[in-house]
Amino acid sequence: MTLPGTLAAAARLIAARKLGPVELTRALLARIAALDPGLNAFITVSERPALTAARAAERRLAAGERHRLLGIPLGLKDIYETAGIRTTAHSRLLAENVPKVDAETVRRLREAGAVILGKLATHEFAIGGPALDLPWPPARNPWDRLRFTGGSSSGSGAAVAAGLVLGATGSDTGGSIRLPAGYCGIAGLKPTPGLVSRRGVIPLAPSLDTAGPMAWTAEDCAILLETLAGHDAADPASVPVPPVAYASGLGTSLKGLRVGVLRRFYERDAPATPETLRMMAETERLLRGLGCRVEPVTPPPLADYNAVCRVIICAEAYALHESRLRTRLDDYSRAFRVRVLGGALLSAADYIAAQRRRTDLIAASLALFARCDVLLSTPTQGPAPLLAEQRPDDGFARPFLTSMANVAALPSLVVCGGFSAGGLPLGVELIGRPWSEAVLLRVGHQLERANGGRERRPEVGAVGE
Q: Which fold has domain 7-301+359-455?
């Protein structure tokens, strides 16, 4: 069968009874079996539970039930706890961990009728990577299997880009949804903290962690967010906000929308490649063509956001893992140890200074929205590098362009903005005020249509082809 290219297209076919959940699930399981040995996107494929869920979705459809996720096959980053299915966090320490209860987000997806195809590779405890000394290899980029997917929602980025799933969950503490989205040429949304429950999602740095959707398009992310978002009284970080129909206003005009360009970040603080700079200039042109007012704005230095982000992640991750690091140090990957052990040297004064500076940066970031509605940047300096080029001290030795949204507690969406001369994706990042996910998804959706990037997919072959 010809697989639908997007979650939205599959939902329309299922609603029209032109495609059945079991047929779609079987086709994607066959695609996973053929292609994933060369991509390593999955840690666990849940074939039998997936087919059971697909049959249940067909019964619900026959009974007249309608939901855009009913019968839609998805993948979960392997830090989302799943009842009866192992959740490893891509670590040998949790290799046999089988939770008894679903994460709240997983419960919502199942209740909506989504079909969970399995658990997707990450980097150990979502710290970033890749690591080559773990029981499972790192995921590879479908656009070029020799290249990095970005981290830590690495399997989610690879699986969506390769068409192994129609959507996936990710988590983002310093860029872990948006970096794979940029390198893999998909859409990924880091929501406002508190919008999506984190209960049952294995933490990395709780004061920065967020959970969100990843999919081929902004529209698909909007459909997923409508189910994932919502107050969870059992999650103390969850915020009660009114429900939003994120997918309904995607085509609304952008005329008069004010876009502030964070050129300082990618021209001076972490200089992007010439191809990325040209893509960003073209993105500005397209936004003007869509009716936006586009002008540069000047944020605080990227180094400030990055330093705060790194100190908080290092301190909080070390605190979470201290007891096991003392007794099972060698069971962690080298990449994890390099990134986290420095937390043992941080004092309470260091951590409090970082949180105080964070408060200043939140205020400075919010002040930018006096002049604009959306901020424009790029999540990466260029296309995906080779896997071998990754440094365990990335984020310390060189700053991440994605740190601002995490430190300032802002929602951020990455969509594909174009391609390098070598055919690798280049990402565009859109940052908004708190709770402005609907605006970001609308801008992202219209940018995707304007730049035509969603018509181009990686040619993924089986191993040996």
A: Amidase signature (AS) enzymes (3.90.1300)
pLDDT per residue over 219-256, tens digit each?
999 999 999 999 999 999 999 999 999 999 999 999 99
Comparing CA positions, the residue from 89, 77, 101, 120 lying closest to residue 321 is 89
Nearest to 426 by CA among 275, 288, 311, 239: 275
Strand order in the sheet with 258-261: 42-45, 115-120, 73-77, 168-172, 210-215, 187-190, 412-419, 425-432, 374-377, 258-261, 293-296
**DSSP-derived 3-state class of residue 246:** coil
- The domain ranges of the chain are 7-301+359-455
> What DSSP character marks residue 201?
B
Look at residue 392 in the predicted model and tell me its pLDDT. 64
Short-list 428, 412, 425, CA closest to 286: 428
Q: What percent of the chain has pLDDT over 70?
A: 98
User: Where in the sequence numbering do the catalytic residues fall?
Assistant: 77, 152, 176
pLDDT for 106? 98
Does 314 have pLDDT greater than 90?
Answer: yes
- CA pair distance 428, 374, nearest whole angstrom: 12
64 backbone φψ class: left, alpha, beta (φ>0; ψ -120 to 50): left
- What's this model's pTM, rounded to 2 decimal places? 0.98
Q: Which two tokens stand for residue 110?
A: 């199942």
Structure tokens at 254: 């952008």
Length, in residues, of the chain: 465
- Report the alpha-carbon distance of residue 125 to residue 328 in Å, rounded: 15
